[in-house]
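This part of the workshop introduces the protein records we will be handling. A record pairs a protein's sequence with a compact description of its fold. Backbone structure tokens are a discrete shorthand for how the chain folds in space. The question running through the whole workshop is how a given chain folds. The record below serves as our worked example for the rest of this section.
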Amino acid sequence: MKKSFLMALLTMWTVGVWAADSMKPWDNGRLKVSDNQRFLMHENGTPFFWQGDTGWLLAERLDRSEAQWYLQRCREEGYNVVQIQVINGVPAYNIYGQMSHPLPSPATHHPSPNTHHPSPTTYGYWDHLDYIIDLAQQNGIYIGMVCIWGGLVKAGHLSVEGAKEYGTFLANRYKDKPNIIWFMGGDIQGDIKPEVWNTLATSIKAIDHNHLMTYHPRGRYTSAKWWSKAPWIDFHTFQSGHRRYGQRMGNADYPIPDNTEEDNWMYVDSTWAYKPIKPVLDAEPSYEDIPMGLHGNSEPHWQACDVRRYAYWSVFAGSCGHTYGHNAIMQMLKPGYPTSYGDAGDVKTWYQALNDPGFQQMKFVRQLILSFPYFERVPDQSIIVENGRQYDRLIATRGNDYLLVYNYTSREMKVDLTKISGSRKRVWWMNAGTGILRYLGEYDSKVLTFRPHKTGFGIEDGVLIAIDATKDYIAKDQIRIADRQ
């Protein structure tokens, strides 16, 4: 493992040159909200489907070579956003032992991360963060900047006056970087110290007119609950959390019905119940390889099929993208660092986790959605006849001439093909774990029953794809959904 990891690092510089020369998302212009208020797009009209990874402790725990490797792997697997904690303490410390506070004054700010550090092997906190943001830029990746974790604000480590100073500092330092997305909050309810979040947000927005902003709420909440009318929020996120059906830990009182803990699709509708409507996505679903409920070491761990289900359920419900997470990657675990979740003996390092199936399978969601006309897509459960509940629940989305139905348990499903244009429909089944397509045939436009393929290993979750036979979004002999990307 160690030898292969080091060999991979040696190849990064060649790949990095290729990444630096290729087209980047922001070459299409800055990010903005689509005209129908449900998606993100670039100024030139190019769709932006958010495919995020959760790298909370990237700036604190990875050195420069490790950050290069991680961001390269994210690019290779199709991620275009990485969510990080800018600081996870006051002060926070990076791997070089350098602290975040007191904040550097503008007079001592050096725009290049290579021009100001105490020694050749020690990098200041903010210079190291600058370097990481520049690495992400080279790889075509946005950095979702969670400015300060919510628990620190709740504990009183950031006052209103401090939020004004900190927001001004962040905005002046990063307003000209093309790959920044601002996050207020950090796993916290918005009615806890709302004056601090408002001050921090408005202080950044007063200076930085280039970047979008959102809020990361506590588990089982949507940011719209508190900030639906806040002038600084451009899109909403929710945290569907990490508990399984019927799992209630301690005296936790979550604002959702019992036995819906895994139904992350419900947060899209509940967010859009607030006005005005804004784009929304699940910014923290269940992490791959983390104990169900987070804190029970004896509990089973969430698997790749679970993180796939959360992605398809959320996106097909109308989300403008999705953020994946892995227990080891979000903590950037490696030898010498204790894990916060699960037994230390069964938790991978962050670089081992890059080979886990869920990390590598999220790209199929984005590739599938971008294979079809983007801005006309809507959730439409009327496509499903006789739906189920919990794991047996089918979820459907469609455009004018295509429809997609995600089926987690590979159960028989009755689908109304009349919901899209065309007297004849071509139909495929896509394996959600591999992106492999199987052409099922051409059918009359009516209600039909389909029995998805099951492998010898058991259930195969996937997507039924039906397209107006006069359209050529997918070729009949196409093997993988990625072939036309």
Notes: The first helix runs from residue 2 to 10. The mean pLDDT is 90. The two ends are 32 Å apart (CA to CA). Residues 222 and 238 are 4 Å apart (CA to CA).
